[in-house]
Amino acid sequence: MTTPPVARKIPRRIEQLGRVREDEYAWMKDDNWQAVLRDPSLLREDIAAHLRAENAYTAAVLSGTTDLQEKLVAEMKGRMQEVESYPAVPHGPWYYYSRYDRGAQYPVYARHAADAPEREQVLLDVNARAARHEYFAVAAATHNPDHRLFAYAEDTQGSEIYRVRINDITTGAAVGAPIENCSGAFVFAPDSRHLFWIWRDDHGRPARVYRREIGSDADTLVYEEKDAGFFVGVAATRSGQWIIITSGNHDTSESWLIPAATPDAPPACVEPRHEGVMYDLHHWGTDFVVLTNADGAIDFTLKLAPQDAPARANWRELVPHEPGRYITACCTFADWLVWRERHEANCRIVMQTRQGERHVLGSGEAAYDLSLSGGYEYDTTELRYIYQSPTTPRQWFAYDMQTRARRLLKQQDVPSGHNPADYRCWRLMARAPDGQEVPITILGRHDTPRDGSAPLLLYGYGSYGHAIEPDFSTRTLSLVDRGWFHAVAHVRGGSEKGWGWFLGGRGRNKVNSFTDFIACAEHLIGQGFGAKGKIVADGRSAGGMVMGAIANMRPDLFAGIVAVVPFVDELNTMSDASLPLTPPEWPEWGNPLEDPAAYDLIESYAAYEQVRPRDYPAILAMGGLTDPRVTYWEPAKWVARLRENTLSSRPVMLRTNMEAGHRGATGRFDSLKDAALIHAFAIWAIETA
User: Fold this and answer.
1) Could you tell me where the beta strands, DSSP code E, fall in 333-381?
2) Cα-Cα-Cα-Cα dihedral of 4, 9, 12, 16, to 10°?
3) What's this model's pTM, rounded to 2 decimal places?
4) Which residue of 379, 546, 590, 638 lies most exposed, with the fewest beta carbons within 10 A?
């Protein structure tokens, strides 16, 4: 099928806040969409037929890349260890870990006794569970504190509606009935007799915390969040002394405490929510360490609060606020406080004793990532962390905070071979239209010419304060080894340069994310890393919003655009309060149902609304039928309107995964097919431009 599908048009007039718009493809949204999330076979047949026709068209257009896709999958698979295991993490008399068997798509969770590493005990073989389903994902999997039970949350549709199962480790038998309709988040209480879990409502919002007494099927409501814009969470402190319930949106948070000694006690609020104030608690001795932006600490600070009176009035300074030093995470040990901080798109790990003595872990590479890798034990001096960079494979370390001795636990092996010396990483700064310096991380081979002749893939995200870390990617090497440059534009809306960098790309400032991306593309062209019309842009989810905007703003810069599960129907989605993420997203984008200024702003950049007759580049949009975050009809509607309006001969394609959601295929090898498709499209787009 080389003739593109022509979607029928059924004009729908929408009046809102005195404004009128028309949506001729609104019919693609199944009125029964909530049921479709749970059972994809319920999708209305005319919609299903259209999506199948789009898939057939995309396959036909890219049929000449079939061999290339297979070769790319083989290359990517060749860089992966068939048999893989990850460093075991100590917890009392046991070490817990996960591993992959040869040819396995999914991990095995296992443990061994501290004194008998050769005697493995399997806790969960995900492959055995996944074999029964077309789609399978595990959101969380962990043991309880007394090491008798193992629980995991499974999703069999891609709709992120999880079922929690609890098993007896010794017998393998189920303990009680499964917990249904979970968000995927749960935690064992420190007493090992209770499990706290998060219930999701019909809109996909984590809205309630329940407590289950293990062994029974009775669930007790502990906390319910009434604000439709807030999500709830639950965790146990590393000290094992408290259970913490959190509720919040992108601006504001609130925490509630339950003593671990009395898990059936009602939760007590620490500090009532104040708009714009976020705080996060970490128990430390007789205090809580509070990670917060209170009192104007835009890049966050650390404070101490007594555990018996942790309200804000009693917070005292521990680590002062420094503008431009963004504290991203915090972790407590019996005698140590550890936090991760970011400055100018790179990060470091800081350790401090109770006496205030501190030291730092960092790196001299141009761009790199240091991340805390967690652990179960509180009374220890051992810190686990991971180091990587675009040229350096992942390295897992155990670091003694007292002696400062570092032990390499594991280094990511690339079976087909990888010499970091063959590659180079650059960190450039592009000047945005308003004068801000936008970081760019670039990976290329030393011998790739910087004269504009090499093709360039430019990735961007820029939302929710999520930073795109300069990580190592074996998949990226398939392009780089073919003479490409791979670059990440760290645009505003992320937090690469601090929380202010996020605020500079959200709400009224959202357009900065798009103009930053364009500035990065132009700067890379000026530095010889690419050329106009020889760039492929790539964005996922909220990064797809950037792709939609730049397609409308500067289509001339790009040979192709990849938009995976793209948020491109912003105005209609933010005007539909029944959708899973709409009320919680209003602080991010604005509320076009009540605020005329927000309506006008969103309409001014919304990818779907701003499609006009233009010479669009080749476009590949990818969606998931059971995606509760970016619903399948967003990319489908966008593609239909683009195809109707494009003035170029370049194809506009849609590929919908009819058996998956936001995250696509979940198997470690199956997911390579999506990556290979994207790479093959990029190569095809450049070669046919």
Assistant:
1) 336-343, 346-353, 358-361, 369-372
2) 30
3) 0.95
4) 379
Q: Within 13 A of 358's CA, how many CA atoms are on the CB side?
A: 14
* pLDDT score, position 662: 67
The four Cα atoms 170, 172, 173, 177 give a dihedral, to 10 degrees, of: 110
pLDDT of 179: 97
Instruction: Quote the mean pLDDT of the chain.
Output: 96
539 membership: H or E segment, kind and range: strand 535-540
DSSP string, 184-239: EEEEE-TTSSEEEEEEE-TTS-EEEEEEEEBTB--EEEEEE---TT-EEEEEE-TT
DSSP per position, 274-324: -TT--EEEEEETTEEEEEE-GGG-TT-EEEEEETTS-SGGG-EEEE---TT
For the chain, what percent of residues have pLDDT higher than 70?
A: 99
pLDDT of residue 38: 84
> Nearest-5° angle of CA 161, CA 166, CA 171?
145
How high is the pLDDT of residue 203? 80
Per-residue model confidence as pLDDT tens digits over 576-607: 998 877 888 998 999 999 999 999 999 999 99
Q: Which amino acid is at 311?
A: A
Rounded CA separation 602/275 (Å): 23
What is the signed CA dihedral for 240, 326, 488, 252, rounded to 10 degrees?
70
* Element (DSSP H or E) covering residue 548: helix 542-553
pLDDT, residue 664, reads 65
Residues of the chain falling short of pLDDT 70: 1, 661-664
With a CB cutoff of 8 Å and minimum separation 6, the contacts of 193 are: 213, 214, 263
Cα–Cα distance for residue pair 33/585, rounded to 1 Å: 20
**Pairwise CA distance, residues 181 & 161, whole Å:** 6
> Residue 317 is encoded by which pair of tokens?
């300074």
pLDDT, residue 97, reads 97
Q: What Å distances lie between residue 383 and 98, 110, 338, 339, 415, CA to CA?
A: 19, 22, 9, 11, 28
CA dihedral 264, 267, 268, 271 (to 10 degrees): 160
CB 480 within 8 A of CB 450: no
Residue 616 CA to chain centroid, in angstroms?
Answer: 29
Residue 480 near residue 426, CB atoms below 8 Å = no
Structure tokens of 439? 């970081």
- Report the distance separating Cα 379 and Cα 258, nearest Å: 22
Q: Distance between CA atoms of 302 and 308, rounded to whole angstroms?
A: 18
**End-to-end CA separation in angstroms for the chain:** 21
Contacts of 46 (CB under 8 A, 6+ apart): none
Active-site residues, by number, are 541, 627, 662
CA distance 547 to 610: 13
Nearest to 155 by CA among 126, 131, 135: 135
* Per-residue model confidence as pLDDT tens digits over 370-388: 999 989 999 999 999 999 9
pLDDT 10s digits, 182-218 = 999 999 999 999 999 999 988 888 999 999 999 999 9
What is the per-residue pLDDT for 584?
Answer: 85
Q: Helices 596-605 and 511-526: crossing angle, nearest 10°?
A: 30
Q: What are the φ and ψ backbone dihedral angles of 685, each rounded to 5 degrees?
A: -60, -40
d(C-alpha 422, C-alpha 115), whole Å:
42
Q: List b or e across 68-89, with b for residues whose CB sees 16 or more CB atoms inside 10 angstroms.
A: bbeebbebbbebbeeebeeebb
Residue 500: Cβ within 10 Å count: 14
Angle, alpha carbons 282-284-287 (nearest 5°)? 95
